[in-house]
UniProtKB/TrEMBL annotation:
The lineage of its organism: Bacteria, Pseudomonadati, Pseudomonadota, Alphaproteobacteria, Hyphomicrobiales. GO terms for cellular component: plasma membrane. Residues 94-274 form the ABC transmembrane type-1 domain. It comes from Pelagibacterium lacus. It comes from the Bacteria. This is ABC transporter permease. The chain crosses the membrane at residues 42-62, 98-120, 132-155, 161-182, 213-236, 256-277.
Length: 292
């Protein structure tokens, strides 16, 4: 009898040692993303340095062609800045301006967020007050300055009210928009578990609206800087605004630009800090979207 040959068994296929594993592929993609971010940051920084250098070159060129009255020499501005910092002129004025700005922004943040939560959380209240808020927001803040002077005088209290009036409405509107557009699924889920209105506000709607609230705070902080200078120009002259108008009246353009640089740096620093807080506190929303 013919003996049957044993059936051929297929040996299990082994993965090639050269084939990339999912873990290594993910690591490669992550490294590429980091490299791309570093390259982009380098390009952004390089572009910013280039723009700053072009600005300085333009200042030199305008100074050479039109004179110091039109544009001061950057070296003169630097010398004057060193003198004003060393003799205490700018630190003293900066302290006065920061007092007005800080109090006005704090008052605007508290009232704007509180009223925004109220108008965004209660639809009927929001519909009633919406035209009034828009009317006040569209009215130039300078239109209220004479009335503020009559009510509060010319000193710190009046300046704080001017700053508050400039910053409160962007904060209020952004907060109300964030609260009213809170995640409906989260709200319904919280209601299904028996959450009270207060719990819905502070545990669901306010955290979900945090990016909008922080965006309003960032816009309000930038406007606060402008409002502080306007208040110091139109009322009792003090702070950085007082230095600006004094230098402008005497056509001391090097002194004028030294104060302008401080204002630019102050506004940039405040905006950068709030933008950093916005990224940190809004990171959980990214995680939530990636988990869907």
């Amino acid at each position: 009898m013919t003996e049957l040959a044993p059936a051929h068994r297929t040996a299990p296929t082994l993965a090639s040692p050269h084939s990339p594993s999912p873990v290594s592929s993910a690591a490669v993609l992550a490294e590429r993303a980091r490299t791309r971010r570093r390259r982009e940051q380098g390009m952004v920084l390089g572009s910013q340095v280039t723009i700053a250098l072009l600005f300085l070159v333009g200042m030199y060129a305008l100074n050479a062609t039109a004179g110091n009255l039109t544009m001061p020499n950057p070296l003169d501005v630097l010398d004057k800045s060193i003198i004003m910092w060393s003799d205490g002129t700018i630190p003293r004025a900066l302290g006065q301006s920061l007092t007005v700005l800080g109090l006005g922004f704090l008052l605007a943040a508290v009232t704007g967020i509180s009223l925004g939560i109220l108008l965004g959380g209660f639809r009927f209240v929001g519909r009633v007050f919406d035209p009034f808020v828009n009317a006040m927001n569209s009215t130039p803040g300078a239109a209220f300055i004479p009335l503020i002077i009559v009510w509060f005088g010319l000193y710190t209290e009046a300046k704080v009210i001017v700053v508050w009036n400039a910053a409160v409405f962007p904060i209020l509107i952004n907060t109300a928009a964030g609260i009213s557009s809170a995640n409906k699924d989260l709200v319904e889920m919280a209601r299904a578990f028996g959450a009270s209105r207060m719990t819905l506000f502070w545990k669901v709607m306010v955290p979900d609206a945090m990016p909008s609230i922080l965006s309003g705070l960032r816009i309000g902080a930038a406007i606060c800087t402008v409002g502080t200078v306007i208040a110091e120009l139109t009322m009792a002259q003090s702070g950085l605004g007082g230095l600006l108008i004094a230098a402008g009246n005497r056509f001391q353009m090097d002194r004028y630009f030294a104060v302008v640089i401080v204002l630019m740096a102050l506004g940039t620093l405040i905006t950068a800090l709030l933008r950093y807080a916005e990224r940190r506190l809004a990171r959980w929303r990214v995680s939530l979207q990636e988990g869907r």
